[in-house]
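Issue 218. Parser rejects a valid record. Input:
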Amino acid sequence: MTIFANARRKMVDGQVRTNDVTDLRIIEAMLDVPREAFVPDEQRGMAYLDLDLAVSEGAGGKRYLIKPVVIAKMLQAAEIKPTDRVLVVGCATGYAAALAARLAAEVVATEADQALATRATAILAGLGVGNVTVIAAAAAAGAPARAPYDVVVLDGATEIVPDGLYTQLAMGGRLVGVFAAGQPPRVEIVTRSPGDFGNRPLFDAYAPILPGLERPAAFVF
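Output the parser choked on:
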């Protein structure tokens, strides 16, 4: 077993399984997808730590791979089926998109930073992930031309209600993400039904705010 494969196993056993992630498809995906491939070379040794790992400092600010346990629990809550179409918002270098690709039929991933979107495309292609399309687009915009989606996953937190993403859900579709408008931040799941969207809090969790989903600056006298 390689050093990284051993670290991957320890991540799953010590961080993921111990936090009530029981979906074997997610566990297998996290054991198979090499998280170290999605981080800069100098940070590969940190790829499996229980932290939000900065992978870029582009014009829009730092971008992160969020904690493995948080993305694992969100994917489990989304209950992605093999026939589902999934939108991953703010994919950074593409790790969450690669995990979702193991669960779904098709994944569309957006990233506001064009250079980062290009890098994500290259990494995913290098790993042979063929059912993910990465699009350079603002987080709040989503990818409406390819909607509707059965599942939308926010690969980071939002301080606003992302209404534009809600409307890209299919009927019965689910959006899951960290909602940080209040304290403490919580992962919530939003489900679309005819004429309504229902919100349900799931668990407390922190994740860095996605660029474009920040709370508007308040006017100060």
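Fixed in the parser; the record now loads. Residues 40 and 112 are 19 Å apart (CA to CA).
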